[in-house]
Structures are given as C-alpha cells and as structure tokens.
Amino acid sequence: MCGIIGIIGKDQVADRLVDGLKRMEYRGYDSAGVCTVEGGQLIRRRAEGKLGNLVKELGGNPAPGTLGIAHTRWATHGAPTTSNAHPHATGEVALVHNGIIENFKPLREGLQARGRRFESETDTEVVAHLVSEQVEAGLSPQDAIKAVLPQLRGAFALAIAFRQHPDLLIGARLGSPLVVGYGEGETYLGSDALALAPLTQKIAYLEEGDWVIISREGAQIFDSENNPVTREITTSGVSAATIEKGNYRHYMQKEIFEQPVVVAQTLSSYIRPLEQTVALPQMDFDLSAIDRITIVACGTSYYAGMVAKYWFETFARIPVDIDVASEFRYRDPVLQPGGLALFISQSGETADTLAALRHCKAQGQTIAVVVNVPTSSMAREADLLLPTHAGPEIGVASTKAFTCQLAVLAALAAHLALCKGKLSAEEEREIVRHLIEAPAALNAALAHDEDISAMAHLVAPARDVLYLGRGPDYPLALEGALKLKEISYIHAEGYASGEMKHGPIALIDEAVPVVVLAPSGPLFEKTVSNMQEVRARGGKVVLISDAEGLAEAGEGCLATIEMPKVHPLIAPLVYAVPVQLLAYHVAVAKGTDVDQPRNLAKSVTVE
Ligand code: G6P
Question: Domain SIS, which positions (predicted)?
C-alpha cells in the first residue's frame, strides 16, 4: 500500500504535497515524508507516526522548492521508524515507493558488495541506490531509469527526484497504481486521482510497465519496451469537497450515515423503478451461458460476496464458490470453461484480489467486478464492470462500500436469475420493490444511533465478543466482528449460530457479550434457540432484531437493538447499520483512532 505523490510546479510544493498525503492517509499512516529539490540540494523531511508529526517537523524545518515528492507509509519491510520512512535518498536521487521489491535482497547484496551503504531496512532503498549508481556513472535520469526498471521484481509505483535536475520527475508503475495529473504549467504524479483532487481533474492512468517523465510542460509516457505511448487523459470527477468530514466527528460516522443516499444512488444504476425491472449494463457475453460463479475478495468485500452466494444460489440456482483472495490461487482452483469469476473490491486495487483476477483471466474465465473506484486496475481489466456509487470512502473500516456492494450484487443475482429463466416477471418486480425500500429502511435503522450509542458502554469493557447469525446474516456476524476488532481492538469472532455449539460455546461466560443478529423471518426461531443456549450458560446477549423479534425473544437480554421490519432480501443491508454503529460507538467509548486504526490500511496493494 502506501500513498505517493509528486509535484513539479510553479509555486512552493511542500504544503501541497502534505495536503495530497492527507488524502491518501487511508493507504497507510505509519510514517510520512517529503523531499524537495532546491538549489542543487535534496531537502528531505521525515517523521514516524501520523502525518501530524511530519507537519510539525516541517513547521520547524521547512522544505522549500517547486518540485518534490512525498509518501505516506504502511510498513512492510522494516519497522515504522524515521530512518525507514520514505523518501529514501542517496547523494543524487530521492524516491518514494508503493509496493514491494521482491528481489531486494540480492540487489542489496550486490550494491553492498559494490561499496554502497544503506541507512534503512527497507526494500525501497535499493532502488534509490540503483538509480543513483547510474546517475553517478554519468547517465541521464531517463537512461538511468531504463537501466534500472528491468532489474526490479515485484510491485511498484515510484516517483523519483534528481538533485541536479530541478526540471523533471520520473514515475514508473508495475502492479501498483500511478496516475499523471495535468495542471496549468504544473504536472503531478499520484497513487490515485483522489490525492490530486484539489490540484487537477485531468488525469491519465499509467498502464502496467509504463514509466513517465513529467516536467512543468506535461508528461512523456513510455511503455515497458521504452516506446513512447499516449494514455488517454480523462476527467476524474473526484472533487475535493466529497472528501471532507462535514459536521461529523469521524469519516466512518459520516460514511455510515451516507448509506441511504449512496445505496439509492447505486440502485438507480441497476433498477428501473417505474418498470420495476432490473437493468444491468450492456455486456458482450451471454450471461445465460454462465454455469458456475467463483467469487473472490478480501475483508469486508469478501463478506459481501458471502451474502451474494446465498442470493445467486437461491435466485439463479447457479453453484457458487467463494474464496478469500489471498488463498484462492494457492489451492489451484478448478476453473471450468463457462465460468464467471466475480471480484468485489472497494478500491479495485487490493493486490491479492487483482492477482486472483489475472489468474482467472488467464484461465479463460469471464471477469466481472464490483468496484467503487471505476478507474481502478480491476475496473479496467474486467469484461463486466459493475460500479458501486458509494463515493470516496476514507474511513479505513469499510461501511458504505459494503452496503452498496450488496445493492449491486442483489440486482446482479436477480438479473442472472432472469437470464437463467428462474425468475418470473412478477418475482422480478417483487425483488425490485424490496430493493427500492432499502434506502428508507437504512434510514430507519440509522434512527437507532442514539440507542446504540447509549448501550455501547456495555460492550466496551469486554475482552472478547461473539457475533452470531444464520443464513445471509451469518456473513453479517462476521462483518460485525471484523468491524469491532478493526476499530476498537476488542477480540471478536463471528459464527454461524448453529456452529456455536461445536466449540465457541466453551467461551461463553458473563464477560463475553454475544451479539445475535436475528431478523424475524424463516430463520428466526432457530437463531433464537442458539441464543437461548448462550443464555442458559450465563452468556450476556445483545439481540438485534425487529419489534416482532424483540417482543418474542428480547426479554432478559443485556441489551436489545431494534431494527425496522424488512424483507429477508434486504435484511443484510439493513443489519449492516447496527453492527457498524455498535463498533463505532464502542471505539469512541474506548477512545481509539476510529478512522485510522492501528496497523491497518484501507487499500492493501501488497500481497
Ligand atoms: C483492507 C481494508 C478493509 C477492506 C479490505 C478489502 O483490509 O481495511 O476495509 O475490506 O482491505 O479492500 P477492497 O478495497 O478490495 O474492498
């Protein structure tokens, strides 16, 4: 992961570089640094920890210059210390890197054997030395890059500044994303369009293997064979305003509350409310021929995929495999012709998911992606792009992206069912009617925010918390547990309610709150039986259900959280809200850093 930015400009760049880092802190916040070029000097400032520390450092020790690079780090090789912070520099070259140089060990040994001294434990520093070696030998920056890039294995997005060249920056990408931004007499590099949002909307996305020389006049892009190429300049559409916190205390809180609007926005691309039909984008392959679906994703996106598996199988009667992306390729999956491989990702850049996508593509699968960043690598490599319209999600713990993914996946399930002849027009109308109700139901769920805030202190002291759910609410139990661990650091596990008696029940005592997700409906009685098994052993239950469910089973619980009564189809969207809010309020009660929890990053672009 990590976020990188470079500016070659008309005015001073340090503050603008820091502002760009602020927009990319979601990519990592273990340390940060900038390096400018001024008066034939590389002026480098770095600080461990959050960006605020770098801002303080720059306050006392400014970095003048109209050209510079900057980095926010999620540590892979080497502890999050100042000496491991980027930019890494030699006498001639400073650079920032997102990704991992997998062959850094032999490269480092070679460099050390040639007498070069290292000041960090990072993989990145080898690149600075390799480029520097070439420059010191008299090569131009361009020729130095041409000599070094073929030596690097792994994944990288690089931005490189040269002490003696205050008129250019060089960028390169392989595996990790990098964009070029075009301004008025200024040019930029960034990990994503979001980083450059206040500077420019004119963005070109580099392709795999591309490298670029940027100057104040523009950019010259080359492919991996060093041939000059042009990459389309698009308008990013990401405005700086969409990434402000507004009146909310945290981005996560804002994003939870945006859900009714962004789910409605997303649904409007996938259903025709008047006709009450689903409407998917045009595709140039025959969906009715799909006879198996393989879903691959990570984290919260994986749980959205788990919910979708229920829908695809129930509605379309298509068998579904699902894997976490980091495991997928390593089990050597059997992928038969005629299969649809479906990748779900907020960022569209998660390295494991992207690698799985490429694996499936190479095996001849049709590739569909549900992504929130329509310009991301996954979006650009898909046969069928199904964007979510959640808008930029800044809080590291995913919330609105999840419910928007569910909205798209429900529409896709209905569409597949239609294509397969498993759904009548009346059943389609019914599904669409329920989906249309989702935004209002999300609003009704959000109306319980204060109740949830008021009971958060009951969960905050716990060391362990269990979440139970059945059917499509089982992935929600997993998601609830993930949210709680991510931001409150309380150990939490989600289980299929019926599985609890096969082990986790041994954990039950008065100190372990058990959050039970049980909308009234076909699975309610069975989940409640599992809940009684907990209570019979002295367990303390937090029951999340609708009024009917709470009336039937709420008595004697540690706490109850009421949800609107909704159709089982949209229950996973609606029940996402209380598990998000519970995690949020517990984290606030514990005083943790809600938007930037320790050790995590939002976009995981390393395997
Ligand atoms: C990280 C984030 C999670 C996210 C996961 C997958 O772990 O912290 O919130 O669910 O990556 O990310 P993606 O962008 O592929 O959905």
Answer: 283-422, 455-597
